[in-house]
Design brief:
Elements (H helix, E strand, L loop, with lengths): L1 E6 L5 E6 L15 E11 L6 E11 L15 E4 L2 H10 L4 E7 L4 H16 L4 E6 L4 H6 L7 E6 L3 E7 L6 H10 L34
Amino acid sequence: MAAIVRYNSLHQTQFLCESNSKKVLSLATDSCLSSEFIVSSRFGKSRRKKSLQFKLLATITETEPPKWWEKNAGPNMVDIHSTHEFLHALSEAGDKLVIVEFYGTWCASCRALFPKLCKTAQEHPEILFLKVNFDENKPMCKNLNVKVLPYFHFYRGADGQLESFSCSLAKFQKIKDAIETHNTDRWSIGPNKGVGDVNLETLSAPKSKPPESPSS
């Protein structure tokens, strides 16, 4: 009996296993994310001279878990990838309280705070949470005066921007207090103000250094 295994991985590996009485199958364990292997075997019987041929095609797929900033707390937490998406989300929010988090994928304080922010979003499905990646939206962040990460903006309907501040995990109570203050049962009169008179569409990429991260 002979079994030949061809395994497509980061290291091209071939195994040739021979045995008179047992089938031997060896596979590499350090494969890449998506691999295919084909096993071809042939068994012969001396008396009846019968043979059995088979092919087995299997695909092993391993997906990496999402990075911390790619995780989502639910439908009320939205990733913002452009100025257009940001303005559209604010305009469509109506009279909902909108909390905008400006973060950096490299920011340790952002990462430490994020799980608690997700929990808060789950506890308040009536609030819209927007996640803005600083590195993807530098011109917009510069014009919104975002200089420290993580940084938060609070918006609501015709009132526009209610307040803004930096916050770390140790100071998360600031976010809870702001929610209690602004997430009230009321209806603002007038059109949705959004960012007000701030022009976010005509910005060029800033040349300044990345924002600082507050100490926990």
